[in-house]
Write a structure and sequence with these properties.
Elements (H helix, E strand, L loop, with lengths): L2 H79 L5 H83 L3 H12 L8 E3 L15 H10 L2 E3 L6 E3 L10
Parallel strand pairs: 1-3
Antiparallel strand pairs: 2-3
Helix pairs in contact: 1-2
This protein binds zinc ion.
Length: 244
């Protein structure tokens, strides 16, 4: 196996690991986003409940006002009943008083119902509030855990970048340029160098390689380019495993 190839294989191993760590980071960031949006949804539900509660309380205040007004009107009617002249007028005013009393009874009934609704809503609101607080604590814990994971992955990537630097120094500039170009290309998925499988297919794109190419790479211990996916390909001899 030639030196460039041996070093490229080591470089690719590290790059492959880095790609995995990066994928992992993306997955964790997605998870983080989802947990955060869950919390936002919960908060919205709570805000809706709060608005509903405020509306009910406003209605309760309006009912109180109606009640006060109706009571004043009743007092007025009672006073008027003492001043009427004819029997007809007296009958009329008694009827009005009855109506007003009924109206007051209805308002009081509404007030009681409204108080019940408010009490129930307040209980619901409190329950939701506690749930949200508990969820928040849980998510904060999870967030910290996820952020630590991201940091760990980034630290590992940094470490591996240093290892890569050491290996790169040993590879000729021309080969390194070629490797970098393929690796950063849009189709490579970050993998520039792949081995040839036992059945003569490229490990990167699974296309069948010309047999002469496979044989020649096996004998020369160098690399070539897969014409289908553009990656560097090499034949991996089990006997050379210890060289890596
Ligand atoms: Zn290929």
């Amino acid at each position: 196996m030639n030196d460039d190839l041996r070093n490229l294989i080591q470089l690719q191993e590290i790059d492959r690991e880095i790609v995995n760590y990066r994928h992992d980071i993306e997955r964790i960031e997605q998870e983080l986003k989802e947990t955060q949006s869950e919390l936002v949804d919960d908060q919205q539900v709570l805000e809706e409940k709060h608005k509903e509660l405020m509306l009910y309380k406003q209605q309760r205040m309006d009912l109180n006002l109606d009640w006060e007004t109706a009571k004043l009107e009743l007092e007025k009617l009672k006073k008027m009943s003492l001043q009427v002249k004819t029997n007809k007028e007296y009958q009329d005013i008694l009827r009005d008083i009855d109506h007003k009393k009924n109206e007051i009874d209805e308002i009081v009934e509404d007030i009681l119902l409204q108080d019940e609704k408010i009490e129930k809503l307040e209980e619901d609101f409190k329950e939701l509030e506690e749930e949200l607080a508990a969820n928040k604590r849980k998510i904060e814990g999870l967030e910290e855990h996820l952020r630590n994971q991201i940091k760990e992955n980034n630290d590992k990537i940094k470490e591996m970048d240093l290892d890569k630097e050491e290996i790169r120094k040993k590879i000729s500039e021309r080969v390194l340029r070629q490797y970098n170009r393929i690796q950063t290309g849009s189709k490579s998925g970050g993998i520039a160098l792949v081995s040839i499988q036992k059945d003569g297919t490229c490990c990167g794109c699974h296309g069948s390689l010309p047999i002469q190419k496979v044989v020649s790479l096996k004998e020369s211990g160098t690399y070539d380019i897969c014409e289908m996916c553009g990656r560097m390909i090499y034949f991996f001899n089990e006997s050379e495993k210890d060289e890596l």
